[in-house]
C-alpha cells in the first residue's frame, strides 16, 4: 500500500513551508454524445511551493478543466500530478480529503460556492479537515474569527452569524478565502476569483491573495483571462492554448517580451487602460478559430490563426524550447 503510506505524509503537514505542484504531460478527454473531446493535451506546469503562477488563456482553452483535474474532480487519462512529492492520482480515502484541504479551489462566483441556507460559521465548519473537525465549538469559533480577521472582515463575530446574502460580493469572496484558510491550505486554485467583482473591489481581493501568500506562504494557481491582473499578482505566467501550455516565464518577461504568436496576440487584444475606446478585449485581432478538440490536431494547434504559419507548422507539432532564462515557448519560430 505504497500510495497510502505516501499519502499519509499529507496529513497534518501544515507547516507553513508550502508545497509544490508538478504536472507532467496531463491529458483529459471527455466523451459527449459519442464524440471524444481531447481537452487537456499534455499539460506540463509547475507551481513552486508558495509561488503565485497565473494561468491565462481564452475561454475554452481548458483552464477550469485543469483546475478540476488537479482537485481530482476529474481523473486524468494520462500523465502525472505530484503535490508535495506525492502522486495525486494515488491518494485515496481520508488522505484525499486531506489533499482537498491542502489544495483548495476559489471560484469565480463566491455566492454560488457558499451555501445560502447556512451561516458563515456553518459554512466554515463544513470545510474543516478531519483533524480540525473535532475541535470544541469555542476553539472553532476562535479559528474562524482569526481567519475572518486575517481577510479583513472585522469584527469577525459579526460575520459568523450572517448568511451569504447579507454580504457584498467582495465580502463573500473574502469569506471564501477565510473558509479555505481555516483548513490551512498550501495551494489555492483561484478560478477567475475577481472577474465578477466590481472593478473597485478587484484590486483589494488580489492584494489580499498576495498578502496571504507572503504571510502564510500559500501558493496560488491564478486562472484568468486578464493579463494585466496576471502580471500584477503572479511571479510567473503560463499561457494556455487548446489544452496545452504554449508559453511560460516570469510575469514581466512574458508580458514585455512575449515570444509565442498567440501570447503576442493576447497582449494586443487586451484592453488598454489608456484608451477609452477599447474597454473590452478586442477579439477582432484573432482571425480564424481555435482547433476542434474532437478532431486529431496534426501540427501546431495555433496554425489556423497564426500570422507566421508555414508548412512545418501544418505537419509537425512544436516542442517547448528555451527562449530566455526560465522562459519557454512552444513554437517552430524558436525551434530551429
Ligand atoms: N464535463 C465536461 N464534459 C464535456 N466537455 C467539457 C466538460 N468540461 C469542459 N468541457 C469542454 O472542455 C473545453 C474547455 O473548457 P474549460 O471550461 O476547461 O475552459 P476554460 O479555459 O476554463 O474556459 P472559461 O475561461 O470560459 O472558463 C470546452 O470546450 C468545454 O466545452
TrEMBL record:
Record keywords, A-Z: ATP-binding, Nucleotide-binding, Transport
CDD domains linked to this entry: ABC_NikE_OppD_transporters (cd03257)
InterPro entries reported in the protein's UniProt record: AAA+_ATPase, ABC_transp_ATP-bind, ABC_transporter-like_ATP-bd, ABC_transporter-like_CS, Oligopep_ABC_C, P-loop_NTPase
NCBIfam families: oligo_HPY
A single MF term (Gene Ontology): ATP binding
Pfam families xref list: ABC_tran, oligo_HPY
Domain ABC transporter: 21-267
Protein name in the entry: ABC transporter ATP-binding protein
Family: Belongs to the ABC transporter superfamily.
SMART domains to which the protein is assigned, alphabetical: AAA
Amino acid at each position: 500500500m505504497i500510495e497510502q503510506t505516501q499519502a499519509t505524509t499529507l496529513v497534518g503537514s501544515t507547516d507553513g513551508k508550502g508545497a509544490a505542484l508538478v504536472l507532467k504531460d496531463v491529458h483529459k478527454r471527455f466523451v459527449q454524445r459519442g464524440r471524444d473531446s481531447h481537452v487537456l493535451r499534455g499539460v506540463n506546469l509547475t507551481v513552486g511551493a508558495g509561488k503565485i503562477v497565473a494561468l491565462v488563456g481564452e475561454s475554452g482553452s481548458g483552464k477550469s478543466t485543469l483546475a478540476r483535474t488537479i482537485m481530482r474532480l476529474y481523473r486524468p487519462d494520462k500523465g502525472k500530478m505530484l503535490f508535495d512529492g506525492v502522486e495525486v492520482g494515488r491518494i485515496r480515502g481520508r488522505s484525499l480529503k486531506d489533499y482537498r484541504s491542502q489544495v483548495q479551489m476559489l471560484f469565480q462566483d463566491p455566492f454560488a460556492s457558499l451555501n445560502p441556507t447556512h451561516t458563515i460559521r456553518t459554512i466554515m465548519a463544513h470545510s474543516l479537515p478531519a483533524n480540525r473537525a473535532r475541535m470544541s465549538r469555542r476553539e472553532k469559533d476562535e479559528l474562524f474569527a482569526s481567519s475572518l480577521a486575517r481577510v479583513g472582515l472585522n469584527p469577525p463575530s459579526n460575520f459568523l452569524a450572517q448568511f451569504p446574502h447579507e454580504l457584498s460580493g467582495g465580502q463573500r469572496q473574502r469569506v471564501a478565502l477565510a473558509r479555505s484558510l481555516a483548513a490551512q491550505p498550501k495551494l489555492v486554485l483561484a478560478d477567475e476569483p475577481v472577474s465578477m467583482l466590481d472593478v473597485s473591489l478587484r484590486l483589494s481581493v488580489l492584494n489580499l491573495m498576495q498578502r496571504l501568500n507572503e504571510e502564510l506562504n500559500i501558493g496560488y494557481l491564478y486562472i484568468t483571462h486578464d493579463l494585466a491582473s496576471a502580471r500584477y499578482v503572479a511571479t510567473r505566467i503560463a499561457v494556455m492554448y487548446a489544452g496545452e501550455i504554449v508559453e511560460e516565464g516570469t510575469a514581466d518577461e512574458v508580458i514585455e517580451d512575449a515570444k509565442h504568436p498567440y501570447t503576442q496576440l493576447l497582449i494586443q487584444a487586451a484592453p488598454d487602460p489608456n484608451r477609452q475606446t477599447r474597454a473590452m478585449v478586442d477579439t477582432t485581432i484573432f482571425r480564424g478559430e481555435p482547433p476542434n478538440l474532437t478532431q486529431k490536431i496534426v501540427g501546431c494547434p495555433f496554425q489556423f490563426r497564426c500570422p507566421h504559419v508555414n508548412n512545418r507548422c501544418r505537419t509537425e507539432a512544436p516542442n517547448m524550447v528555451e527562449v530566455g532564462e526560465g522562459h519557454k515557448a512552444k513554437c517552430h519560430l524558436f525551434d530551429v
